[in-house]
Design goal:
The protein is of the alpha/beta class. The protein has one domain: Purple Acid Phosphatase, chain A, domain 2, CATH 3.60.21. The chain is built from 9 helices and 14 strands.
């Protein structure tokens, strides 16, 4: 898919209004503020019905939405990699939006991703911002660098002797594409009991609406940034009142439907240089065995 020039122009206008303008007014201080720079290490247990005994306690490190560009600069990447690696995950999932708008930062982004460490590998899917400049070039460079980019496909691996299926889907530029992306990802995938644990990476969290049809235990997503601005925390279905709850069905946190789970991270980077009650985060998800 080549660059959509209209989409790219709209993105540049949004960046000028919501990113460059605040940075210019504050002389760059907004990007250096604690609300933007602080990264929370979020830890959650996920109780899974189909988890084999061997995988009880397996940890997944989840990060997303680096948006490397005007707010989160390449010089910030070593700190982020160090934080992710100190979580000591068995598997690392990175769910898209590696760059904010321009591929000029791609070399340090790739270098940083290559420094992430996990025994079961580092797995990635692209986000919508990764297509704003030149999506095919980003994909080509990632593949040339040997990164595990999952584009509507699934890979079978072994963890502690137990089978694990890791699937990933491309970003849907039209919502109706999500379902077909999942069909493509899983059409050759082994079914249970051959794959005892099934993970799905999708930048857009609405993939959760189709994940149950493919027996996915845990879906990992980003895209929402948690809204970045949260006015109040609630105990309701969406968990908060703010920009995220206004714009997204699954704005942030852990969601459950029957025996299927979704985790939506608030992201590492920021689209605009302000966060309120919604810190940037790297998540550590510990999988726990739950009785059927």
């Amino acid at each position: 898919m080549q660059r959509n020039h209209a989409r790219h122009l709209r993105a540049r206008l949004r960046q000028a209004a919501f990113t460059h303008a605040p940075l210019w007014v504050t002389r760059g201080r907004a990007a250096r503020s604690k609300s933007v720079q602080a990264i929370h290490l979020a830890r959650h247990d996920v109780p899974l019905e189909h988890l084999p005994p061997e995988l009880d306690g397996m940890r997944v490190t989840h990060l997303s939405d680096l948006h490397v560009g005007p707010v989160l600069a390449p010089k910030d990447l070593p700190r982020i990699v160090a934080l992710a690696n100190q979580l000591d995950g068995d598997l690392v999932a990175v769910t898209g939006d590696f760059v904010d708008l321009s591929l000029t930062v791609l070399e340090p982004v790739i270098h940083a991703l290559q420094q992430l460490r996990a025994p079961l590998g580092v797995w990635l899917v692209p986000g919508n911002h990764d297509y704003l400049d030149d999506g095919p070039e980003l994909i080509r460079r990632f593949q040339k660098a040997g990164l595990n980019l999952l584009l509507n496909r699934a890979e079978s691996i072994k963890a502690r002797g137990a089978p694990v299926l890791v699937a990933g889907v491309d970003f849907p530029h039209k919502k109706k594409q999500l379902g077909s992306h999942l069909v493509r990802a899983f059409h050759r995938a082994p079914r249970r009991p051959e794959s005892a644990l099934r993970l799905l990476l999708s930048h857009h969290p609405d993939a959760f609406d189709w994940a149950g049809r493919h027996d996915v235990d845990l879906t990992l997503s980003g895209h929402t940034h948690g809204g970045q601005l949260v006015l109040a925390r609630t105990g309701g279905k969406r968990g908060s009142i703010g920009l995220g709850s206004l714009g997204f069905k699954y704005p942030h946190g852990l969601y459950r439907r029957d025996r299927h789970f979704l985790y939506v991270t608030s992201g590492v980077g920021s689209w605009f240089p302000l966060r309120v009650q919604c810190p940037a985060e790297i998540a550590s998800l510990t999988l726990r065995r739950r009785a059927a």
